[in-house]
């Protein structure tokens, strides 16, 4: 076994033991002695771990100072003097955003076409619930297992198509 595999195994076992939430962020921390620790608590010197296939919610921002509060003359309550957008907040011009949206739409439409082709092939092979038996399916239970798997694959593909169509509809 490789050390990478063992590391992942230990990481997963640790997550299961602590009942980590599915949407929590995982940090990789290395101390002065070079020891590595994986945790869901952001500490100094920790970096967010990028796990393949794992989509986490955005990490909680570091705490910051309270906004400056000023009193207006004649007003009985303070007025916050924070700007709606921080000064260093990145801005994207309309043309760039439109180009990004167009690229995203093209990618999603390609995925939709591929998923629709896959669904067509799955339904053709499924043959209305009576696919042809294969040579290794002398046992009827094996055949039924394959038919059930085909049914699941068709359902999953239909859900993927619905999700892709929703994503395409959400693009401005």
Question: Any overview of this molecule?
Answer:
By secondary structure, this protein is mostly helical. It has 2 domains: 3-48, no CATH class; 94-170. 46% of the residues lie in helices and 10% in strands. It contains 3 helices and 5 strands; from the N terminus they run H-E-E-E-E-E-H-H. The strands form 2 sheets. Strands 2-1-3 form a 3-stranded antiparallel beta sheet, with no helix packed on it. Helix 2 (94-126) packs antiparallel against helix 3 (140-170). The relative contact order is 0.07.
Task: Tell me how many strands there are.
Answer: 5
Q: Quickly count the domains.
A: 2
- Alpha carbon gap, first and last residue: 48 Å
Range of strand content: 5-15%
Task: Let me know the average pLDDT.
Answer: 76
Q: Give a quick account of the main beta sheet: strands, pairing sense, barrel closure.
A: 3 strands, antiparallel
Instruction: Provide the succession of SSEs.
Output: HEEEEEHH
**Low-confidence runs of at least 5 consecutive residues:** 68-76
* Radius of gyration over C-alpha positions, nearest whole angstrom: 26 Å
Number of helices: 3
Molecular shape: flat
Structural class: mainly alpha
Strand numbers in spatial order across the main sheet: 2-1-3
Percent helix: 40-55%
Task: Itemize the secondary structure elements and their pairings.
Elements: H1 3-17, E1 27-30, E2 36-39, E3 46-48, E4 69-71, E5 78-80, H2 94-126, H3 140-170
Antiparallel strand pairs: 1-2, 1-3, 4-5
Helix pairs in contact: 2-3
């Amino acid at each position: 076994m490789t050390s990478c595999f063992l590391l992942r195994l230990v990481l997963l076992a640790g997550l299961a033991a602590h009942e980590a939430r599915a949407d929590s962020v995982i940090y990789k921390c290395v101390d002065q002695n070079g020891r590595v620790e994986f945790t869901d608590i952001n500490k100094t010197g920790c970096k967010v771990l990028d796990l393949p296939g794992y989509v986490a919610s955005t990490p909680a921002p570091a705490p910051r100072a309270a906004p400056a509060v000023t009193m207006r003359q004649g007003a009985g309550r303070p007025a916050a003097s924070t700007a709606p957008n921080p000064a260093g907040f990145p801005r994207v011009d309309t043309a760039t955003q439109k180009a990004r949206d167009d690229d995203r739409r093209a990618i999603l439409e390609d995925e939709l076409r591929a998923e629709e082709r896959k669904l067509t092939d799955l339904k053709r092979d499924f043959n209305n619930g009576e696919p042809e038996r294969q040579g290794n399916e002398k046992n009827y239970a094996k055949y039924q297992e394959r038919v059930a798997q085909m049914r699941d694959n068709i359902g999953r593909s239909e859900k993927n198509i619905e999700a892709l169509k929703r994503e395409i509809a959400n693009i401005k």
